[in-house]
């Protein structure tokens, strides 16, 4: 039995669920936070989405069938929660998702939690100019170093499509960064 299998059994056991969930939180909260933060950009928003992600994981762990790795399943929840959060926020502000993305990037320079210089800000602007799927793939590969096989599980698509998306994203980012 793997550690993940044991943890999963504990999560599904009523008398061990609380303790196992604390272990799960400690194992994945930082990785999931940065995954979410790469999507929503803002620290405060990332904290909110992370909390919603873990609430969903907690409520739905009993229904997890094990068709994918536990962390892939949690990353998929985190990704969906992040994208839903951005859509809701754009609707509330009555702007498009692209306009929200641009506003968020423009606000990054004044975000006290953003530890970047001009070059990192320019990279974030370049990433924001990509279509949503390319942004996800680029962030997951470049910042999180997630393997294409795992990314295919998380995003429910083929490795080939992900490799193509990443390659196109890199070309667009290079082009963006070298203009001016």
TrEMBL record:
The keyword Transcription applies. One of its GO terms (molecular function) is sigma factor activity. Residues 121-173 form the RNA polymerase sigma factor 70 region 4 type domain. Residues 26-91 form the RNA polymerase sigma-70 region domain. Keywords: Sigma factor, Transcription, Transcription regulation. One of its GO terms (biological process) is DNA-templated transcription initiation. InterPro entries: RNA_pol_sigma-70-like, RNA_pol_sigma-70_dom, RNA_pol_sigma70_r2, RNA_pol_sigma70_r4_t2, RNA_pol_sigma_r2, RNA_pol_sigma_r3/r4-like, WH-like_DNA-bd_sf. Belongs to the sigma-70 factor family. ECF subfamily. This is RNA polymerase sigma factor. It comes from Pseudotamlana haliotis.
């Amino acid at each position: 039995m793997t550690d993940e299998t044991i943890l999963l059994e504990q999560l599904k056991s009523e008398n061990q669920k609380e303790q196992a969930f604390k272990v799960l939180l400690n194992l994945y909260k930082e990785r999931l936070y940065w995954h979410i933060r790469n999507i929503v950009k803002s620290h405060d928003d990332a904290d909110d989405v992370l909390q919603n992600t873990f609430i969903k994981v907690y409520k739905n762990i009993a229904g997890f069938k094990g068709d994918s790795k536990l962390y892939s399943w949690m990353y998929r929840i985190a990704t969906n929660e992040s994208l839903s959060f951005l859509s809701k926020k754009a609707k509330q502000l009555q702007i498009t998702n692209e306009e929200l993305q641009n506003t968020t990037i423009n606000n990054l320079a004044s975000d006290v939690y953003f530890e970047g210089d001009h070059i990192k800000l320019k990279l974030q602007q370049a990433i924001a100019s990509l279509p949503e799927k390319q942004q996800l793939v680029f962030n997951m590969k470049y910042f999180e170093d997630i393997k294409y096989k795992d990314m295919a599980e998380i995003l429910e698509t083929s490795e080939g499509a992900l490799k193509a998306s990443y390659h196109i994203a890199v070309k667009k980012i290079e082009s963006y960064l070298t203009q001016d």
